[in-house]
Specification:
Shape of chain A: globular
Number of domains of chain B: 1
CATH architecture of the largest domain in chain A: Orthogonal Bundle
Order of helices and strands of chain B: HHHHHHHHHHHH
Helix content of chain B: over 70%
Structural class of chain B: mainly alpha
Number of strands of chain A: 0
Oligomer: heterodimer
Distance between the termini of chain A: 29 Å
Strand content of chain B: under 5%
Largest sheet of chain B: none
Largest interface: A-B, 104 and 108 residues
CATH superfamily of the largest domain in chain A: MetI-like
Radius of gyration of chain B: 25 Å
CATH topology of the largest domain in chain A: MetI-like fold
Largest sheet of chain A: none
CATH architecture of chain B: Orthogonal Bundle
């Protein structure tokens, strides 16, 4: 590859396109940026807009806009899909996953951010592996195992399977937050004789609070939106909102599209509200890989 | 190194002192819950699945794999998965890479775009599939627009086939790829490109000789993750595609073997083959990456 450097003989012609490029290149990247973002926005508005409009439409067949508007589909969907029970399950699962994940992830992220030790790389790979494997790959064997252990279709089973991608996700987000906490504060506390657990509980945790809150909310959003794994083990009484939505969509034709879309809007609203709260605590570009810099 | 010649200042016993020098301290116990979790909920089930895939009624432990490759309906899922994942990942990368490079350090605009792109991530595939069914369907806005402008005179079929799923993969995976690339692009100093420009490198040369090699490590990791996501396509293949036909991906096959046919060993076999294929793709990408940028910044992360 490097040998190719000498194989670019027309050195004399290089400055000419360079001068030309200076005017043309920003034009190209700008066009590309606008094009891609425009396409993305159109898709987003189309997808979200058609669901939103459909949920408040009286009837909508073969026209640009519905014939009339109503809010009655929301109460219809609530009753039709038994959403009281579904939401109860959803929040039970989401909150249990949140608590257990944080209990596991905070200490792990703390050590990984603070300390070098033998086999650190190996452990890091082990913790992050679930992120780099398709969910179905480990989801199907794990679900099979949970069925064998009679845990499938129960609330604990749904919670357990949801932990698998949540813990690595939380560790990833928490590590940069720990790195931001000034280590000298811990040292100071230790010098004044605070035992380790007190340093952790009185110094590290309070300073880590914004990171923990942000991680927690993102975990809630993620668990509520996580479909694949929940779907594999959810039973009739342990369906979360997104699984219920899936069954309604896949059986479309038996139900009115408006009531399906009303349920979809309720699901969307839950996530948007939680996300808006999360953004109060976190800079979104930090969520992925921000800790590397 | 473990001679302990430095006079031990504290009253620590030598062994723990020596261990502490290597970083082994009681604080490592804090990792225990995570280790138990990873072994119990990830490693063990995975090994269980591996064992299950070799559980057969016949003499040969490989008979599940033999069956997979001799049954065209099962074997075909590999091609159907690749046929969706490869174009989707390429389209996403081509769209996201210039965007990520252009958005380096753009301030408020960057923040706004990031939020817009994060929004669909949180909606999840099921909601997006539902929306795409409305939007791309025969009576949806896309077909309506094309009919009204006279570009087509029959609604085109974009749902319940290959195209619907391809759209769904692109829309769900693009944001994550973009955000990852953005954070890597932020680490590439634009002064290198400016320096190359000063020395007369054309835009093409600057991109292929300067930016791309610097970008290669991040690009390789992002591409691998994008493949993971595209391979795992599952709800959209069921909702927006033909799960029994053109979009019967390996994920759909693994699911239906386990929970519709109740053939758990075969389901585990499909899952293991999926993991193997994914691994193969990652090895290929990393191989390509090392050819693309043999030395640059390989030592950066240590």
């Amino acid at each position: 590859m490097r040998a190719a450097t000498s194989a670019s003989p027309p050195a004399g012609t290089a400055p000419e396109p360079a001068g030309d490029e200076r005017r043309r290149r920003p034009g190209f990247t700008k066009l590309m940026t606008i094009g891609v973002l425009g396409f993305f926005l159109v898709m987003l508005v189309g997808v979200v807009g058609s669901v939103l409009l459909s949920s408040i439409a009286t009837r909508w067949l073969n026209t640009w806009l519905p014939e009339g508007f109503t809010v009655s589909w929301f109460s219809a969907a609530w009753a039709e899909f038994g959403l009281t029970q579904v939401l109860l399950v959803t929040f039970q699962v989401a909150i249990s996953v949140l608590v257990v994940t944080l209990v596991i992830a905070i200490p792990a992220a703390y050590v990984l951010a603070r300390q070098d030790f033998p086999a650190k790389r190996l452990l890091t790979v082990l913790f992050l592996l679930p992120v780099v494997v398709p969910t179905i790959t480990y989801g199907v064997p794990l679900a099979t195992l949970l069925y064998k252990l009679q845990l499938a279709q129960t609330l604990p089973g749904v919670i357990l399977i949801n932990l698998v991608p949540s813990v690595p996700f939380a560790i990833l987000i928490l590590i940069p937050f720990v790195e931001q906490v000034d280590e000298s504060l811990e040292k100071a506390a230790r010098i004044f004789g605070a035992p380790s657990w007190q340093v952790f509980a009185r110094v590290v945790l309070p300073l880590l609070a914004p990171g923990i809150i942000a991680t927690g909310i993102l975990l809630l959003v993620r668990t509520i939106a996580l479909f694949d794994l929940t779907f594999l083990v959810a039973g009739p009484t342990t369906q979360t909102l997104v699984v219920k939505l899936f069954y309604a969509v896949s059986a479309a034709g038996f139900r009115s599209p408006q009531s399906i879309d009303a349920m979809a809007v309720m699901y969307m609203a839950t996530n948007v509200v939680l996300l808006a709260v999360a953004f109060k605590f976190i800079n979104p570009s930090r969520i992925v890989g921000g800790g590397a810099h | 190194m473990a001679t302990g010649t430095a006079a031990p200042p504290a009253a620590l016993p030598p062994l723990s002192k020596r261990l502490a020098e290597k970083g082994v301290t009681p604080r490592l116990l804090l990792l225990l819950p995570a280790v138990v979790f990873a072994l119990g909920l990830f490693v063990y089930p995975f090994l269980y699945g591996l064992g299950l895939s070799f559980t057969t009624g016949s003499a040969s432990p490989w008979s599940n794999y033999q069956e997979f490759f001799s049954d065209p309906y099962l074997r075909g899922t590999i091609w159907l998965t690749v046929r969706l994942a490869v174009p989707a990942v390429l389209i996403i990368l081509v769209a996201a890479m210039p965007l990520a490079l252009a958005m380096r350090g753009a301030g408020r605009a960057k923040q706004a775009i990031t939020v817009i792109l994060l929004f669909p991530i949180t909606l999840g595939t099921v909601l997006l599939s539902r929306g795409l069914l409305n939007f791309l369907g025969p009576a949806g806005w896309v077909n309506r627009f094309l009919l009204d402008t006279g570009l087509i005179d029959q609604p085109i079929q974009l749902t319940y086939n290959y195209w619907g799923v391809l759209f769904a993969i692109i829309i769900t995976d693009f944001p994550l790829v973009f955000l990852l690339l953005l954070s890597y692009a932020g680490g590439i100093d634009p002064t290198y490109e400016r320096a190359a420009a000063v020395f007369g490198a054309s835009a093409r040369q600057r991109f292929f000789r300067v930016t791309l090699p610097l970008f290669a490590p991040g690009l390789a990791i992002t591409t691998s993750l994008a493949f993971v996501l595209a391979f795992g396509t599952f709800p959209s293949a069921l909702l927006l595609g033909e799960p029994a036909g053109s979009t019967r991906t390996m994920g759909v096959a693994a699911y239906s073997e386990a929970f519709q046919q109740f053939d758990y060993p075969m389901a585990a076999t499909v899952a293991m083959l999926m993991a193997g294929l994914e691994l193969l793709v990652i090895v290929l990408i990393l191989g390509l990456r090392s050819r693309l940028a043999p030395t640059v910044s390989s030592g950066r992360k240590g």
